[in-house]
Structure formats: C-alpha cells, structure tokens
Amino acid sequence: SRLLLLTFSIMADVVSLVKNETVPLVKPDGSGISKVRVGLSWDLSRMGAAADLDLFIVQKTSEGKKIAYFGNKTAITGVQLSDDNRTGAGDGDDEFANFDASVTEDGEYFVCLDIFQAESRNQSFQMVSNAKVTVYNAETNEALVTYPLSADGGSHTGVVVGVLKDVGNSYLFTAKGDYVNGDINTISAAV
C-alpha cells in the first residue's frame, strides 16, 4: 500500500494522514463542520494544450449512484458544483463543490477528478502543474485538508481523492488517493 500524505490542519495542529485514514472535520471547539467546500486548482501546462481537470462527486445510494459534474452540477441533493474551468487559468480554486450536511443525506460522497478527454489529447498528471485539492470549512474559508496531485499522479488521468461521509450534521474525511486511468465513467464505476 502506497503511503498517501495529506496536510490536515485543525486548530493549530497539523496531522499527516495515510491512505484510508479517517478524521472528523471539526471546529476548534470540537463541534462538527456542517458546510464544507472542496476546491480543485491547477496551473496552465507548460507542455502542449491546456489540461482540463474536472472535479466531480459520486454518491452511492441504495438505488445506485448519483454523479454531480460540470454537466449536472446539482445532481446530488445538498451538493453544488461551480462552473467548469477548462484551463486552470487564474489564482485560487479553479473548480469547487459545496456540501451542506443539513441537506445532504447521511452516507458517502466520493471526491473524484479526471482530465477531460485525456486519452484523445494524450494528457496525464505529468503535464499538469501545481494541481491540488483543498477541503475548507465553508463558513470560515479555513483550509482543513490539502492534497497535491501533480507529483503523485504520474501517467494517470484520474483520481479518487477521498470520501466525505455525512454523519448527521457534520462530515468525516477519509483519504483515498486512488489514481486510475480513465474518464468520469471509468472512475465512477470503480467507486
């Protein structure tokens, strides 16, 4: 099992997570965080065409899977995706998803991303600069988890970053870091 390190800060502490480790997303007073934002950022590629990274969320339900992505941003109740950024241009998060535990159903929400049309464009994470996913307390904008993607992604085209689990009025985060080759359909089928 490959070691996956994430920078996770709650209060003044910094904790390194290993793959499949779970931590509660809590405020400094120990109460749960009910509104979370997951941001994806990357920079323009220095090699070839600009890579289009797409953040998407997969929810497993008893009826199957629901997928919120750039073509259906509100497919999952309580989850809202931002507009699609196709180049990574600009500062800060290029795409994000907002989660509200007072509205989402108890259960698991897989945070995933892929490089749009990676196979036909012959692209992989090797061609993407400074890609990372950050989980924030949406009420305070405090970064809770940051996961750099470019260095570990190598020749892969997608990744299951982690799982947000709604446990009432707050969330748990489980680090995954499962890199795959494939598009949104391949990745969604794998979770």
Report low-confidence residues grouped into runs of 5 or more. 1-16
Mean pLDDT comes to: 82
Instruction: Tell me the fraction of residues in β-strands, as a range.
Output: over 45%
- Based on DSSP secondary structure assignment, what is the total number of beta strands? 13
Q: What structural class results from the helix and strand content?
A: mainly beta
Side by side, the strands of the main sheet go 2-1-11-10-4-8-7
Tell me the distance between the termini: 18 Å
For the CA atoms, what is the radius of gyration? 16 Å
How much helical structure, as a percent, in the residues?
under 10%
What about the largest sheet? 7 strands, antiparallel
- SSE topology string: EEEEEEEEEHEEHEEH
Q: Which overall shape is indicated by the principal axes computed on the Cα atoms?
A: globular
How many individual helices? 3
Helices and strands in order:
Blueprint: E1 7-10, E2 13-16, E3 22-24, E4 35-43, E5 53-61, E6 64-68, E7 79-81, E8 95-100, E9 107-115, H1 118-121, E10 129-137, E11 142-148, H2 150-153, E12 158-166, E13 171-180, H3 184-190
Antiparallel strand pairs: 1-2, 1-11, 3-13, 4-8, 4-10, 5-6, 5-9, 7-8, 9-12, 10-11, 12-13
